[in-house]
Structure formats: structure tokens, C-alpha cells
Amino acid sequence: MRYVAFAVAVLLAGWAGGMPVAPGAAERERFSVAFVNPGRSDELFWTSVGDFMAAAAEDLEIDLTIVHAERDRLVMVERALEILRAPAPPDYLVIVNEAETAHAVLPAAESRGVKTFMLLNSFTGDDIARFGAPREKYRRWIGALIPDNRSAGRVIAEAVIGAAAPGLPPGTPVELVALSGDKVTPASVHRDAGLDAVVAARAGEVSLRQRVQGRWRRDRGYELTLGLLQRWPRVRAIWAANDPMALGALAAARERGRVPGRDIFIAGLNWSAAALRAVVDGDLVVSVGGHFMAGGWSMVLLRDHHDGHDFATESAELGLAFEVLDAGNAGRYLARFGDGDWGAIDFRRFSRSYNSDQRGYDFGPERLLGE
What we know:
By secondary structure, the protein is of the alpha/beta class. It folds into two domains: 2-147 and 290-322 and 340-350, Response regulator (Rossmann fold, 3-Layer(aba) Sandwich), CATH 3.40.50; 150-289, Rossmann fold. It has twelve helices and 13 strands. The protein has helices spanning 8-13, 44-59, 73-85, 102-112, 126-131, 149-164, 186-201, 218-231, 243-255, 273-281, 294-306, 330-337, and strands spanning 2-4, 31-37, 62-68, 92-95, 115-119, 141-147, 174-180, 206-213, 237-240, 265-269, 287-289, 317-320, 323-325. The two termini are 30 Å apart.
């Protein structure tokens, strides 16, 4: 997998009032895309994925349909199969391998002749050999855009350990508990692997007391943290695989009489507005994120593929770098992007189809909100 990234610094250059679209950006042939969104229709992260994706599709002259599976594995599969069985299926189907749902969907799309693009979660373990890479065993599986979740897990771990360690006597390890997402979703598995790599590398400096599955939910993060802090009263660091669980842990820590940012340190992932406000206030250490933008970047890649500017000249399977928002830059991000007005971005600026002199994709790891 080749890693590229889209920096918010690049987005800022394309913000309303920025540079115009390159000459020759005439109206393109429209085509259709369906996205099976695995999240709930009121779930902040997944609605953000859809909103960003829809803004990109509008700019790029793509007819986009989004259906929500409401976090139900069976519904995810059924929605995808319904789309594929339609008399006139879409030109492209975008799926997420949440809870291994791609096992059923990918072969069905191949049989139906629908081009498939995988977003955010791909295959892990034995499934890599079983399904291969894009365009190998399944020729109509044309690509994937997958965040570097191992790196995200490492960054969250380093952040909370680094914040917690200075308050301890020399030689005393940081006691840590972890709120994982689940045991099967690749994003969760890889974030856990990143945490484990840090714990192994810093043996003697950190003690991972317990890992539990919070199922990505704030209420579970709250309930589990209440029990964890009772069982492990000397815990000073809480690693959370997403912001909702981190915010639940934050509420539970306060209920247990702890002072976030002083005697307990918590970090998560998603860049949710509530979490970023907690970062600004010093209650959370960091929020890692940017991956909700992957849906919009997939629209750029599909626009180019449809127009004969195949992204596979870079790689059929692209990685997306996470970025870190902390007390130094979270406020600036909220001021610029906090209202979620993605329609003000000109997504055509990032497409080869609209910019004939563009070479490669810069989805890249520059500093967020770079000068």
C-alpha cells in the first residue's frame, strides 16, 4: 500500500475565496455512486463521512446515493445486495469492510459487473490471501483508501503516556487502560496493534492493566471506565479508540473524583467538535483524525478513474495519514472547520480530471492548518 495524505493546509488553499479551478474544467459526464454507510444515521462520525462525501460529489458532478446500515452487520450486507440487484445498479459501489461485511458484498459486485471501491476498512489476516489486493482476484474491485490505523493507535498511546509520566516518581510505570472498538473491525484491530507496539517498546515505562471493548459508544466508554477506575485506582492514562468512548471516559473519571489533565490523561480519535473543545480546555490530551474526509477523497479518485485518469498509476490501494489536533491547534481547526461547511471547499482542485497538469495525489502528511 502506498501512503498519501490530504492535509488540511491543502484544503485551506481551496477554501472559498481561494484560487480558481484550472482552465478547461468544463462540465464532465455524470456517473452514479452508491455508498453503504455502516454507521447510524445520527452517529456523528459517520454522518460527517457522508456530508464530506456529498459535498465532494456535488462539486465533481457525481450522482451520489448514501444509505445507512445503522450499525447492523446484516443490514450492511442486505443494503449492498439490494443496490446490486437493482435493474440499473450504480456505476460504482463504495463499501466499508465493517464487521467483515465485504466477504459477501465483493463477490456479488463482481458478478453484477459493478466497480467497487473500499473505504476506511479493508482486509486483514487470512482474508488478505483469500481476496487479494484490488484488481487481482476481483478485477472490478478497483481500489481502496485506508487510513493508517496502526499509526493512529501509536500516536494516541504516546500522547497519553507522555502526558501522564511527568507526574510520577522516577522509575514508576504509567498505569494504562484501553477502550478498544471491537474485536473484528480492521480499524479497531489495527489501532489496538499500534497501542500494543508502544507498550512493548516501552516495557518498564508503562503497564497496560486492562483492555475492554467499548463498541465505539460513549455510554459504554462511561460505564466501562467507572469499573476500570474502581478496579485500577492508580491508572493515570486512558487510551480510547474513538472520541465518543474518550468522552464517556472523561465523564466517568470526573465521577470518580479524578481531574482530567492533572491526575488522569485521556485521548481519542475522530476530531468530533465536542472532543476538540475538550482538547482546547485541557480535558483531553489530543484527538487524532482526518479520516472522515476519506469519503470525499474517494470521490476525487472515482471521478478521475471514470474520466480515464486512473489513480492506480499511484497505487490501487492508497493509505491516508492521520493528523493530531492538540491544545495548540484544535482551536484553529474548530474556527475554520467546526461548522462542517464542506460545501465551501472546491474539490475539483484535487482532481486530475479537472487539472490536466496535476501529477500524483497530495493527500499528505503536512502539518494541519499549516501557515
